[in-house]
């Protein structure tokens, strides 16, 4: 897809090890393959929506369809930017940032997943730091929120390292069982105090109207 048709295809975020960008169809196929190969142990469910249940083929198709849906449903008042993450040229996972009425609230929310093969290398922290830079430095956010199950120690550690503070608890039904999520909130001062990853934004200016700015 040419960026002049959908400028978000020209947006890139880079860190020392990673590149994040909206995937074209070939990259999206690679991302689906990473999801199909596995994101977590089968006896776990770290997500509020259990999209990883099912066969590898179903996980791959779900990834493919959902990401295309975020592009189709995009409006300046309600958007989700779903970025494929590459490490050393290899697709390793997905990092999302989204918002409703961002121009008014200046608040965004993040979510992500990483292929099991690539976990434990600090990639999750680095890719979250990348979209936090986009939100705060690029788009002028005041707050960014996240959430994780109270027993999801890895995700909670990432949030802690990046400066998030607890923002209450929420109980949701997951696989027909009550699960408790810890909400997390990061303000600009907290982000600035915990910045350790160098991040560069490329091609942001042509996309600003799509974010409602």
TrEMBL record:
<protein>
    <submittedName>
        <fullName>Succinyl-CoA transferase Rv0802c</fullName>
    </submittedName>
</protein>
<keyword id="KW-0808">Transferase</keyword>
<dbReference type="InterPro" id="IPR051908">
    <property type="entry name" value="Ribosomal_N-acetyltransferase"/>
</dbReference>
<feature type="domain" description="N-acetyltransferase">
    <location>
        <begin position="18"/>
        <end position="198"/>
    </location>
</feature>
<dbReference type="Pfam" id="PF13302">
    <property type="entry name" value="Acetyltransf_3"/>
</dbReference>
<dbReference type="InterPro" id="IPR016181">
    <property type="entry name" value="Acyl_CoA_acyltransferase"/>
</dbReference>
<dbReference type="InterPro" id="IPR000182">
    <property type="entry name" value="GNAT_dom"/>
</dbReference>
<dbReference type="GO" id="GO:0016740">
    <property type="term" value="F:transferase activity"/>
</dbReference>
């Amino acid at each position: 897809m040419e960026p002049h048709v959908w400028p978000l295809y020209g947006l890139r975020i880079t860190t020392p090890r990673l590149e994040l960008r909206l995937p074209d169809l070939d990259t999206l196929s690679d991302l689906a393959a990473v999801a199909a190969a596995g994101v977590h142990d089968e006896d776990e469910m770290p997500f509020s929506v259990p999209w990883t249940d099912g066969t590898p083929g179903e996980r791959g198709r779900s990834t493919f369809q959902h990401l295309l849906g975020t592009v189709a449903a995009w409006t300046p008042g309600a958007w989700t930017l779903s970025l494929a993450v590459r490490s050393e040229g290899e697709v390793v996972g997905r990092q999302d940032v989204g918002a409703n009425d961002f121009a008014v609230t200046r608040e965004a929310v993040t979510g992500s997943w990483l292929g099991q093969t690539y976990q434990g290398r600090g990639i999750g922290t680095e890719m979250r730091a990348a979209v936090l830079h986009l939100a705060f430095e690029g788009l002028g956010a005041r707050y960014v929120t996240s959430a994780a199950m109270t027993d999801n120690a890895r995700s909670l550690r990432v949030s802690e390292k990046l400066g998030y503070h607890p923002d209450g608890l929420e109980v949701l039904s997951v696989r027909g069982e009550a699960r408790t999520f810890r909400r997390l909130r990061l303000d600009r001062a907290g982000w600035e105090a915990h910045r350790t990853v160098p991040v560069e934004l490329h091609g942001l200016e042509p996309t600003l109207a799509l974010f409602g700015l």
